[in-house]
Amino acid sequence: MVVVDSSALIPLARVGRLDLISAVFEEIRTIEPVREEVLEAGKPGTASLKSFLDDIEITETPPDTDEMAELEGITPADAGVIIAARDGETVLLANDKGLIEVGRTQGVECWWVTTLLLKSTKEGVIDARAATDLLYDLVDRGMNLHPKVYTKVEAQLRELGEGASGEERGV
Q1: Which residues of the chain have pLDDT under 50?
Q2: Pick from 128, 124, 121: which is nearest to 162 by CA?
Q3: Which of 21, 115, 130, 170 is most buried, judging by how many CB atoms fall within 10 Å of its CB?
């Protein structure tokens, strides 16, 4: 199971690859404030986000959200997805450094969008070449990614591609 944040949903919607989430996770949920945040008319990907969100569980904002938000200096929506993931003992998928840092202090296993991309490649959902192209598209369409992280993920995808090529040759 995974709890998804808007910081992961928006870039994946912009490149038309929300399907990667359901390819890796059987159960997906988010909270109502995230749903409200991403369904902003006139933004690229909103129609696909609506369709995706219609098929997943949307829960109310967990208790103690406002208190965590105030104590940690994060938004109530960020605090809500952290609490939902913590209390559900599940992965949190996000692409927000502050949210992930706080999530980890709460004992939550946090995945970046790049983690999802690598996992999708390892599981054969997408091949390494297509994943590398997708990485470029994500950044090109506005996903924040430090150049060092981009280079590292690109190298890992290259290694995965080389491993797959070797397997196909019987190496």
Answers
A1: 168-171
A2: 128
A3: 21
Beta-sheet pairing, 110-111 with 2-4: unpaired
Distance CA 70, CA 52 (A): 30
Q: What is the pTM of this model?
A: 0.93
CA dist 76 → 62, 63, 67, 144 (Å): 10, 11, 9, 21
Q: Which two tokens stand for residue 22?
A: 């359901």
Q: Which amino acid is at 80?
A: G
Q: What angle do CA 122, 161, 2 make, to 5 degrees?
A: 20
How does DSSP classify residue 169?
T
Is residue 65 within 8 Å of residue 35, measured between CB atoms? Answer: no
Q: Tell me if residue 28 falls in helix, strand or coil.
A: strand
The tally of CA atoms less than 13 A away on the side-chain side of residue 144 is: 6
- Collect contacts of 20-23 with beta carbons under 8 A, ≥24 apart: 20/116, 20/117, 20/120, 20/125, 20/126, 21/52, 21/93, 21/116, 22/55, 23/120, 23/123, 23/125
